[in-house]
From TrEMBL:
Upper taxonomic lineage: Eukaryota, Viridiplantae, Streptophyta, Embryophyta, Tracheophyta
Family membership noted in the UniProt record: Belongs to the WD repeat RAPTOR family.
InterPro entries for the chain: ARM-like, ARM-type_fold, Raptor, Raptor_N, WD40/YVTN_repeat-like_dom_sf, WD40_repeat_dom_sf, WD40_rpt
Keywords per UniProt: Repeat, WD repeat
Biased composition (Low complexity): 44-53
Gene3D superfamilies in UniProt: Leucine-rich Repeat Variant (1.25.10.10), YVTN repeat-like/Quinoprotein amine dehydrogenase (2.130.10.10)
Originating organism: Salix brachista
Ranges for domain Raptor N-terminal CASPase-like: 123-276
Top-level taxon: Eukaryota
Name of this protein: Raptor N-terminal CASPase-like domain-containing protein
Amino acid sequence: MALGDLMASRFSSQSSVALVSNHYDNFPSTQGDDVLDSARRDNNSSSSSSNNNNRDRDSDTASCSNYGGGNATTGSTVATTTSMAYLPQSVVLCELRHEAFEASVPTGPSDSGIVSKWRPKDRMKTGYVALVLCLNIGVDPPDVIKISPCARMECWIDPFSMAPQKALETIGKSLRNQYERWQPKAHPKVQLDPTVDEVKKLCNTCRKHAKSERVLFHYNGHGVPKPTANGEIWLFNKSYTQYIPLPISDLDSWLRTPSIYVFDCSAAGMIVNAFQELHDWSASGSAGSTRDCILLAACEAHETLPQSDEFPADVFTSCLTTPIKMALKWFYRRSLLCDSLDYSLIDKIPGRQNDRKTLLGELNWIFTAVTDTIAWNVLPHGLFQRLFRQDLLVASLFRNFLLAERIMRSANCSPISHPMLPPTHQHHMWDAWDMAAEICLSQLPSMVEDPNSEFQSSPFFTEQLTAFEVWLDHGSEHKKPPEQLPIVLQVLLSQSHRFRALVLLGRFLDMGPWAVDLALSVGIFPYVLKLLQTTTPELRQILVFIWTKILALDKSCQVDLVKDGGHTYFIRFLDSLETYPEQRAMAAFVLAVIVDGHRRGQEACIEAGLIHVCLRLLRGSVPIDTQTEPLFLQWLCLCLGKLWEDFTEAQMVGLQADAPAICAPLLLVPQPEVRASAAFALATLLDVGGDVCRDGATGDDECYDDEKVRAEISIIRSLLSIVSDGSPLVRAEVAVALARFAFGHKQNLKSIAASYWKPQSNSLLSSLPSLAHIKATGSGYINSNQYVPHASIVSSQIGPLTRIGSDNSSMVRDGRVSTSSPLTTAGIMHGSPLSDNSSQHSDSGILNDIVSNGAVNHSRPKSLDNALYSQCVLAMFTLAKDPSPRIASLGRRVLSIIGIEQVVTKSVNSAGSSGHPGDPKTLSPSPSVAGMTRSSSWLDMNAGHLPFRTPPVSPPRLSYLTGIRRVCSLEFRPHLMNFPDSGLADPLLGSVSSSGGTERSLLPSTIYNWSCGHFSKPLLTVPDDTEEILVRREEREKFALEHIAMCQHSSVSNLNNRIANWDTKFETGTKTALLQPFSPIVVAADENEQIRQAILYKKNSACVLPKEVQQEDFGVWNYEEDYLLNGFNNHDFPDKGISKLCLVNELDDSLLLVASCDGSIRIWKDYTVNGKQKLVTAFSSIQGHKPGVRSLNAVVDWQQQSGYLYASGEISSIMLWDLDKEQLIHSIPSSSDCSVSAMSASEVHGGQFTAGFVDGSVKLYDVRIPEMLVCATRPHTENVERVVGIGFEPGLDPGKIVSASQAGDMKFLDMRNLMAPCFTIKAHRGSLTALSVHRHAPIIASGSAKQSIKIFSLNGEQIGYIRYHLTIMGQKISPVSCLAFHPYQLLLAAGATDAPFSIYADDNTLAR
């Protein structure tokens, strides 16, 4: 299958990942078809625009409700109560961005370091060749005794067939021609039977003209004695009466380096040994002769050259310079063809060596592939690069040297080299060469007889490609690399094999970065670079894929692409409509890497019109239709962002092309990666400002023309609308954008920030527009009838900065702004020096002095509206208090740019100290309060001698103190960002050099690097663990269905058997808990999110936890084995407590969703592994709250069927979040003056949930219908108390609800028929604190503050009562704070207001 087809099938199959089928289709529906069809259309359009390939929302359409009345439960319902309707098929939060966003910053393609080792550092060329022939024809040397007959041929010439002098000249000319065939511009110079002076002159001349290039010295000493043990070779005197020795040291001093020597004489190993001794002796000298000196010698020091007439006399030289002829003649004598083939025909092989369409050319091609393959598989990669890829002539000589070793070893002669090579004469690839040689020789007679006949090509390359394909089917990173890789490189030269070779090469590169590095090391790069000049249409998709893989590993290739004009190839491909969007996304990726930090690449792509191509493609994709590939949109945006990043000319082109208006709609698409990429593209359009702007010499308004001002207003307004996006990836880009904006408008933003500390500025803040009104047209995030006060979104995010429980007066006392003023409501004042009595003598005075001295007055905001600057500052505060630690760190960095430092101080009491908040030991400097007692930003930045008193800080509260300080100097100094006491150092964000840094070094974008990681992973194959995941899923589904049936048909009896008890040591008791469905694990948290030391025990057994398990937010406990699995901090500021724990993807690798009381959502993976938990994502689920509200008291529930998270609290609406899209998709008006106090999502009907309110009312919602509110009632009217707990009755009936109020009454409601009387039981008397409805069994549990738990059936019958511990002492249980049933078993977990946490089972479960 071609790679393009393989890619197409792979991408098309991704949308239908094999999941267990959904059986909803078999369930009868009694609802009107119009509602179902509408819901189905809504869902289909929603899911088609989603990029999550692992989601299946067909279940959303399977509603069986009948809201208008009647009985929805038919006879067939019973048959399907244990069907797959109970097992949601959706899986969320499992994309690349969720792997470890908080833990690491992935890097994009590298341009240096280990990945660039494949590139030859110093490409070299052999510029001159010195040929020295000492033959002395007719006179044998005295130390050689020749046999008869003996080898006589020199350069395939018989020296005795002509006069000696003529023979000598002919041989010299022939040798020169042979070298010119390998290196036409090598300038061979020949010396025949020379003297020492002639050789010296030749060497000096070659080195002089070669300069820094390599010089080759070829020595044929067949007519002189063997080299001496002292390392001397022999020459002649002028009269040829004496042999004159030439020390090898003199030769080395004349030729110097780089150089390569070929010694074709007996005992040539003597010279190699002498060279090695010379190099060792001069290693510390300055001659430098050891750096690059290569030697090839015909034999060992104790060996003589073969004399058999089977070989030529210069067999070593013949192997090096005429390898094909030598190889065929040697093979001929050892093959069966010797009896039927004329030996002389070998000299008549037709064709040219450089023409692969001829017989001689194909043989040379195969020989090159074989020897390259042997070298690649035998040599270390570094040595291979040096000998076979650095210098063309050296590479040819070493390929031929492998042949010389094979042939001469058959004559008991061992050629040697320096550097030394391992033996290769028995490598199995020589068998492939022999087969190719035999096929060639068998055709030779007919081709010589008829020169016009065509030869039959060898099957060598086809067979080797098949072998490579077999390896691809079974190989991996952990197995031996494919030995055919060099052959694939050679096959790229052939047009007939090229397509298949590229397809297989693409498959190999897709196996991972290690494969790309191997391919680059073998030398694939120049070949695929050259192929970009072809216009063959069928190669386009494959070449784009291959270049995607290469650039995903090594960014340095961008220079080569631009130099060769390769960028135009990808721009044309990007603009073509015949290819798949996924493949065009790869072209956009390649172009993004080409322009990433490469000004020449940016200029070349702008000249080629890339900006207009990308914007036209984006404009045609909005609104997004079902055919648009999100990955394509993502990389179009990233390509644009990289194209105009830090490039003013490109930014102007983008603004003139109306880029902000084209990119802004993408901020609202369902895919977080596309939203983040669009934010990145818009952010890089913001100019960070020049020195004039930064210095504030003339004001920001003079640095911008009207067009740019309007564009920046548009960009900032668009980005402010997503400051509370559900994806940290998106919010990170907003933070980067605000940082860029802060650099360009530093003085104006500092003025706004400085005005927050003026006592008279409370009227200013109260008039500021809020972020809630900055939203894109048609976003639909906040309903028009929902009340959203000024700064509501911001204040909900930075609420922990306010002083809870302070004076509610709005007056300004003693020159200070009160804690209830708009200033402190936005969370700006608390913790700053102005929040203390003495602050008016410290910071306010300094600030007023600065303002009066003109440091601020000259830069009053003029370029943009003051309101917009204020909204930007509020957005910065929002990000600084983000639930995601990384985003919060980015937000604090942005604040530091405009002169505000956040002080986050942990209370000493939180560590268990019993000291009073006012005690000196509580306020003493320690690691937990270091940021409060000193900040370098308050010091004089230049001299450090400014008289200054550290402002006293208010006594810390029992939990945590947080605050904001204004940095005294209004000029940002990046060299202090990593000062040890500044509290601003962040290893995740990179360091800033002392010479100053740019905005990129301070706030690097993350979306580009994260997106690059996509192309480093396999794109053509399904992950290996898919089958394992499906098997585990099937096992869990089987377990769940079996236990669901058991629960539905069980008769609960005596659910008061305590099977486990956990002494959590919670000071305030357990706030919430959950039981894992497929393992004996319980997760619990307390109101203050603290766990210190837990003692776990079952009946008659006890287990003491290790001492290091202390002070954690959560306990993850195995209640069968009695030990603590894990404990960890949910976040660093647990002053709000945890309101809800939920499991996400419980049938797969489950995630732990933790909802804090302030509406912050954090989702963890690997939470059961001690110390290995990772934060998957985090966001704030509640935006805006009612005026005068001090605590949000968030109410949250999760629905796996739909992938929706429902959140509400002290607000006028219910927020509906899609965790697949990580986006707020609805804000449902609660239509009530009261707040939501309890909420429950249906386990089987996606999009349906019910809410209980503070005034005792209950409402049922279904987000699949346009009006969303199905019905409302107020059942709790006797004693108007808040609804404490609410839940759907088990089963598929969508209208039956159980509601319990704080007064103790429990209502069984049928929301389909509100006219019918509801069934009521008085569970407790004014003290009900917890309610839990089993997901499948017909039982309900309620807990009371009066130390009792009651179990009821769905008929209202009390079937269980727990009041005392079943121990010897029989003490009462503690006041109940939370209850949780096991999803598939009759187990009840109960938490109390004190430390013990218990798990109960009925008699049947206990017996099992």
